[in-house]
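Posting for a labmate who doesn't have an account.
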Amino acid sequence: MAKKIGYIRARYPETRNIINKAAGNPEYVQIAKFHNSLLILSRAREILTGKLLHRLIPLNWDRHAVYKTMIPPRVDIIHTFNAVCDTDIPWVSTFESVIPRTNQTCNSAWQQAPQKADKLNKKAFELLRKSSCKALIAISEANKNMQLQIMEAFDVDGREEIAKKITVLHPPQPLLVTEEEVQEKFENVENCVEIIFVGGKFFRKGGAEIVDSLTALAEHKQKFHLTVISSLDYGDDVSRSTYEDMLHYKQILTNSEWITYYERLSNPEVLELCKKAHIGLLPTMADTYGYSVLEMQSCGCPVITTDIRALPEMNNDSCGFIINVPKAPSTEALYETDEELSVLKKSIYDGLYSAFSEILDNPGKLKAKSHSSIEKIKKDHCPQKYGQRLAEIYKL
């Protein structure tokens, strides 16, 4: 009889890292939401206090930090994303930054000075030590190092014991192109370099710097074309972009002959465009991972990225282009002050201008980087190897 693996939600991260990913054909079962007492109490509190318009309220990470079962689900193991479990049922968690993921741990104060855990975090760290916690799966080495750093900053009891449960498992990614398709798309790269950017958070992911640097190169002898798929989200606490910024760049995107702009496309449509592109872009200021990099690389599309968080583990100068930016010890970019943000944006602009100039001077070099991208996907993100490793963690 197949073992049952319980998961709480079916969002993109769970679909990408958890659901139906383990070898051995275990049965994945979504645990009913009424099992999560914190969610029930949180929603009731919103209704009673008239806060259903919660988008106007600062994000409350505490809400989803700990999963506590009211009625134990009938599963053999629970696999969460970013959540700690308060249960005797064996559980594992895949996490993208630190765990527990709470208001206190998502605040950067712990990177500047030692902290004292509040009641929620103290309880959550204790739960990580329990025998029912079987593994903590970091999606990158940078992620794992952040976890070790935060446990040190909070002076967590038993942190050496918790550290032994941490394993690194990069997300899986199947190849999406054949060798023939790669060969064909680079036949005409000398005529026009096809560049692609995908990301709703246009400003946080370096969209403004992309447009500005390519505008400065618009008179280059080598022809290029940029495709942008973005809802142009603005107002994030990293880029501090404004409504006026959005209007300015939307005007450029919709009125430039060398740009094709889509507000949104389906994932299959995006991937078809990536298969035709010669170079992809994620010069981001802040991202926990960067799944779009994997998708582009699996389409034989080398990528220009910054060197924050997990990105140097996915990308390098042999398979793409890396932009070095000022970083904290956590490997997150520095952007807290206006001066830091200004320096960060200039670093990204300068890095893009340099990379684009190099590409446009010698577009033929992209083909070798494309092949290296594909080999890296096969080596580090093989779905079969990922499934086998997950089955070992579950002890199937």
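Reply:
Got it, the structure tokens are right above this. The domain at 179-380 is CATH 3.40.50.2000 (Rossmann fold).
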